């Protein structure tokens, strides 16, 4: 494998993708990348997937690299990932999937001046908190425009200095909703597109905080995340909406969608609140009731249509 990589470098290759199949991951020894690859100045795209061992040297420097995917790679030291990122001065797209190594590398730092697109995924559902304490992801990316954050591992995500974000897909499972609301995901201050996973624990509290802290929000979608298909998680207790009508509802939100809507009492409150306060709303799409009869579906749809609206929105 190393010979092939070196041969490609000699030929001036600009894109490199190395991967193992997930099924044989445990049986394979990690592939070690040649040291010369870390200073290869022509590389523009690097995608590493499964059982790739990263032993990043201090002098790493990839001046042309614009796309980097690290999918469940093996980090030889705790400094490997931050050292690699610091050696990519023009990186624009970064994908980090740490589902299989979240216990070995508990803190991820992403501090990059030119990054445009960032995807961080952790769908490990049984983290080991016995050693090392809380998992944490720190993001400081001032030029970021697209963010995809999928976390089933109770990570604490600290994000700052992200004024340009326009699309944010947030899918979070958290066993401590009070921690989630108090400290997590308050960085989407200028986002205009938000997808919220309704299979996440405490998602309704996160919805309230997102409405309050996203003044430019234009598109709101409540759905069930693809990585963890299931029905919408029922709201426990009573939904507490914003203390005052958020700015996004008064001036910007024009599209509201909800998939797998169950028409429970607290869910009805959320829909009624959005429709009654979103003054610029143009399109509403609500789907669900898969196992209800035609008559029941018609009745529930009529209930939605009869709700008072602040705008002349179109109900689908």
UniProtKB/TrEMBL annotation:
Pfam families (UniProt xref): FBD (PF08387), LRR_At5g56370 (PF24758)
Residue span, FBD domain: 247-316
UniProt xrefs under InterPro entries: FBD (IPR006566), FBL13/AtMIF1-like (IPR050232), LRR_dom_sf (IPR032675), LRR_FXL15/At3g58940/PEG3-like (IPR055411)
Gene3D superfamilies: Ribonuclease Inhibitor
Name the record gives this protein: FBD domain-containing protein
Organism per entry: Eruca vesicaria subsp. sativa (Garden rocket)
């Amino acid at each position: 494998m190393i010979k092939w990589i070196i041969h490609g470098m000699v030929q001036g290759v600009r894109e490199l993708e190395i991967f193992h199949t997930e099924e044989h991951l445990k049986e394979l020894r990690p592939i070690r990348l040649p040291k010369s690859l870390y200073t290869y100045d022509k590389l523009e795209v690097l995608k590493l997937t499964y059982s790739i061992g990263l032993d990043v040297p201090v002098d790493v420097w990839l001046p042309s690299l614009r796309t980097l995917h690290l999918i469940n790679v093996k980090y030889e030291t705790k400094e490997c990932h931050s050292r690699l990122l610091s050696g990519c001065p023009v990186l624009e797209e970064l994908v980090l999937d740490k589902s299989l190594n979240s216990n070995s590398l508990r803190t991820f730092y992403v501090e990059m001046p030119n990054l445009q697109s960032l995807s961080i995924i952790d769908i490990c559902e049984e983290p080991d908190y016995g050693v090392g304490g809380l998992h944490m992801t720190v993001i400081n990316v001032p030029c970021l425009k697209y963010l995809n954050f999928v976390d089933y591992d109770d990570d604490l995500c600290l994000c700052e200095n992200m004024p340009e974000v326009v699309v944010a897909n947030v899918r979070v499972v958290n066993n401590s909703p009070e921690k989630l609301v108090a400290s997590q995901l308050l960085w989407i201050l200028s986002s205009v597109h938000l997808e919220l996973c309704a299979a996440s624990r405490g998602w309704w509290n996160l919805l309230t905080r997102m409405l309050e802290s996203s003044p430019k929000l234009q598109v709101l979608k409540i759905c069930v995340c693809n990585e963890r298909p299931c029905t919408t998680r029922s709201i426990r207790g009573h939904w507490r909406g914003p203390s005052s009508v958020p700015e996004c509802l008064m001036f910007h939100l024009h599209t509201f969608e909800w998939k797998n809507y169950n028409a429970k009492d607290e869910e009805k409150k959320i829909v009624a609140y959005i429709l009654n306060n979103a003054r610029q709303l143009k399109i509403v799409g609500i789907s669900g009731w898969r196992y209800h009869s035609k008559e029941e579906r018609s009745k529930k749809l009529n209930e939605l249509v009869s709700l008072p609206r602040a705008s002349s929105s179109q109900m689908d």
